[in-house]
Write a sequence for this structure.
């Protein structure tokens, strides 16, 4: 007892007496911290400072405030947005024949181009005072997704002007003169924009672009002015082949000091008419046979006035931050919209196809092997829709959540790939034979485009999500890094001492929370709701504490080496991502009014998310380089082992059974993929067959009973079988007519296109 009291007194003196604490704790730790501090490049610093911390900050800090999540509100369309979707968007869909667009035209038909321009499809984000729509992020996402349910090429054509491009950059950063000149033209479709960022030597590392703009004096329109001599070589530029105005990112240099002392000004963005002397719009690319315009652009010694810099000369060198902030918003709207559309289409068509396609005398949806894949499709679609809603909610709240949008871009495009793979497996021959009836082939082929653009997925996962999130979201680390960079050592030590005390308390809380939650099954963690989803919130709090603890110790042990441990940081980033996706799922369940028929999907999604997060933590612990620290963390995080299990077979069967019938749950999960008479893509065909077959389900039961008792033969083609059943008065004449009609629709739905020649 005496020894314990003495030890306690030592701790109290060490931490309670400031002069002693500063000498023996703060100063040594501060010196150590400065040594292990990861070096940050200028582009990393700008990326770190750009954007905002949003809900991911709560998840990263170990104790999420679930009431904050629920306070964000439910995304809703305004009356104007709803009217645009019900009229202009639906009209546009009738003009789309994706097979003709991709296979024959290699372009959108002229009437569709004209309609997009006339009705303001390229002006969704432009303010109304300039002739734009000023729609919300949620509305823009919904519009792109509905178009994507019919044609990826059409959707990409619309999404690019409303994503990273001149319109968004001008709206946020343009001078008054630039906005007044360009935005009305962009809104009306008179000007078609593209934005050139990616080049042969700069892809995911956009900050390393070699394209240059050198400050110089030259004659322009008969007058010698100060401007830029530009040289660039860009590729993969969507809309470049048809663009009339080019947004360009380049490294600005001032070797002669014409603007000041800074020789390397930095990344800058400018706006240049494509008919300007020296601008070259090159040939088209062929992105996996899609028909949207994509190509190259070059320029050699192209002179432009300084006033053509977006935002004017005062924004010289600020282009990287502008791009990061705008890219984060576009990344959270456009690509997630394409991915969610794939999910809606796959769910609508595959549930219908699984019902109408028969093998071995049964709908294939009754086979457990099919149910396993179909359950993943449905659950991933529920997750995609939930993530789309939460991410656009953040953007509409006027935050720029760069980490959240990186999570959305990576995980939603990967989920879309999984959904399409499973849908192709189930629909098999129906999916691989291209033609007007095929609704899976083009999205399946286009999916890798989403995965590679706006930052390759591999690097998004391994470098961005955890790399930015760990520093941006941590309540102390960024402030400590700023303190370490202070020139006044005494002031820095004082500030660091205050931060250190808070940081130590934060770490102790997370360690205790992780261990206590693990030992008690999270039963004492708070939840904002009761009922079946209550435990999910509690388990997420436990995993959030574990992530915060492991992040702290990883940064402490590895310091600057952590960002080079990409596989390790990717796994910890996965924990954050899974918690974000799970948050989105629970929020959508609440926003939908806690519908009972949503519960099978929620159960499947949440057990998957929690299992994935726990497995990512376990994988990080298994590969943590400092084994004693890894053993200590394992004892705190999984003292009784990892017992987070994925969905059961029963969950899968329950989910599929509920979705293989018409109803509100299925409608909520497929509303981006409406069926209507003018559909040219085969979706309405398979849906019509599904509804007709379902209406006849009780008539089919009569025939099955008669087959089992031997009244009707078991192997007889449907029309003859139905006629025989009517002759024997097993079914009525009206029921016979319904069966024959339904069977005709079924055959049309399962058939594929064929051609005289290709």
């Amino acid at each position: 007892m005496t020894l314990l009291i003495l030890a306690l007194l030592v701790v109290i003196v060490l931490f309670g007496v400031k002069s002693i604490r500063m000498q023996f704790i703060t100063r040594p730790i501060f010196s150590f911290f400065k040594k292990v501090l990861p070096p940050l490049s200028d582009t990393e610093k700008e990326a770190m400072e750009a954007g905002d911390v949003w809900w991911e900050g709560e998840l990263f800090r170990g104790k999420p405030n679930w009431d904050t999540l629920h306070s964000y509100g439910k995304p809703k369309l305004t009356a104007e947005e709803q009217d645009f979707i019900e009229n202009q968007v639906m009209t546009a869909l009738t003009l789309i024949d994706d097979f003709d667009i991709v296979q024959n035209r290699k372009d959108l038909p002229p009437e569709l181009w004209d309609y997009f321009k006339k009705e303001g499809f390229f002006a969704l984000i432009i303010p109304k005072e300039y002739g734009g729509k000023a729609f919300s992020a949620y509305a823009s996402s919904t519009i792109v997704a509905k178009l994507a349910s019919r044609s990826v090429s059409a959707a990409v054509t619309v999404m690019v002007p409303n994503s990273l491009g001149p319109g968004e950059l001008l709206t946020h950063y343009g001078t008054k003169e630039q906005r007044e000149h360009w935005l009305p033209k962009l809104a009306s479709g008179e000007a078609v924009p593209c934005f050139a960022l990616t080049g042969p030597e700069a892809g995911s590392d956009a900050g390393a672009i070699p394209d240059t703009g050198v400050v110089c004096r030259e004659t322009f329109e008969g007058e010698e002015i100060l401007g830029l001599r530009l040289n660039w070589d860009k590729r993969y530029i969507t809309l470049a082949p048809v663009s009339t105005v080019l947004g360009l990112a380049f490294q600005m240099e001032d070797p002669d000091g014409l603007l000041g002392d800074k020789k390397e000004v930095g990344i800058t963005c400018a706006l240049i008419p494509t008919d300007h002397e020296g601008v070259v719009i090159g040939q088209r690319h062929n992105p996996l046979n899609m028909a949207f315009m994509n190509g190259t652009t070059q320029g050699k010694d192209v002179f432009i006035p300084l006033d053509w810099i977006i935002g004017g000369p005062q924004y010289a060198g600020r282009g990287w931050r502008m791009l990061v902030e705008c890219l984060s918003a576009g990344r959270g709207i456009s690509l997630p919209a394409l991915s969610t559309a794939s999910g809606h289409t796959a769910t609508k068509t595959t549930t219908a196809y699984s019902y109408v396609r028969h093998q071995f005398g049964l709908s294939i949806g009754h086979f457990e092997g099919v149910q396993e894949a179909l359950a993943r499709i449905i659950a991933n679609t529920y997750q995609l829709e939930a993530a789309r809603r939460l991410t656009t909610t953040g953007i509409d709240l006027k935050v720029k959540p760069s980490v959240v949008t990186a999570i959305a871009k990576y995980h939603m495009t990967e989920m879309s790939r999984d959904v399409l793979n499973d849908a192709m497996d189930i629909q098999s021959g129906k999916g691989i034979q291209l033609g007007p009836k095929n609704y899976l082939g083009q999205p399946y082929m286009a999916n890798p485009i989403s995965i590679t653009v706006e930052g390759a997925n591999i690097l998004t996962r391994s470098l961005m999500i955890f790399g930015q999130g760990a520093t941006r979201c941590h309540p102390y680390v960024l402030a400590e890094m700023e303190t370490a960079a202070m020139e006044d050592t005494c002031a820095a030590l004082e500030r660091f001492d205050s931060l250190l005390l808070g940081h130590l308390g934060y770490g102790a809380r997370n360690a205790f929370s992780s261990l206590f939650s693990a030992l008690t099954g999270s039963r004492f963690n708070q939840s904002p709701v009761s009922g079946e989803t209550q435990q999910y919130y509690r388990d997420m709090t436990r995993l959030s504490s574990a992530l915060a603890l492991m992040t702290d110790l990883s940064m402490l042990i590895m310091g600057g080496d952590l960002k080079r441990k990409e596989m390790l940081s990717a796994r910890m980033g996965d924990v954050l991502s899974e918690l974000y996706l799970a948050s989105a799922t629970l929020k959508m369940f609440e926003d939908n009014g806690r519908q009972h028929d949503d519960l099978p999907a929620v159960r499947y999604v949440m057990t998957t998310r929690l299992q994935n997060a726990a497995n990512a933590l376990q994988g990080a612990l298994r590969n943590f380089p400092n084994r004693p620290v890894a053993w200590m963390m394992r004892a705190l995080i999984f003292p009784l082992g990892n017992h987070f299990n994925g969905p059961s077979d029963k969950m899968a069967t329950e989910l599929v059974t509920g979705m293989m019938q018409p109803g509100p749950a299925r409608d909520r999960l497929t509303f981006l993929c409406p069926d209507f008479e003018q559909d040219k893509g085969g979706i309405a065909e398979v849906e019509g067959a599904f509804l007709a077959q379902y209406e006849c389900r009780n008539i089919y039961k009569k025939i099955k009973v008669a087959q089992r008792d031997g009244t009707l033969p078991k192997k007889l083609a449907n029309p003859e079988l139905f006629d025989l059943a009517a002759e024997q008065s097993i079914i009525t004449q009206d029921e016979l007519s319904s069966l024959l009609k339904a069977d005709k629709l079924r055959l049309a739905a399962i058939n594929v296109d064929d051609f005289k020649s290709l």
About this structure: The two ends are 90 Å apart (CA to CA). The mean pLDDT is 90.
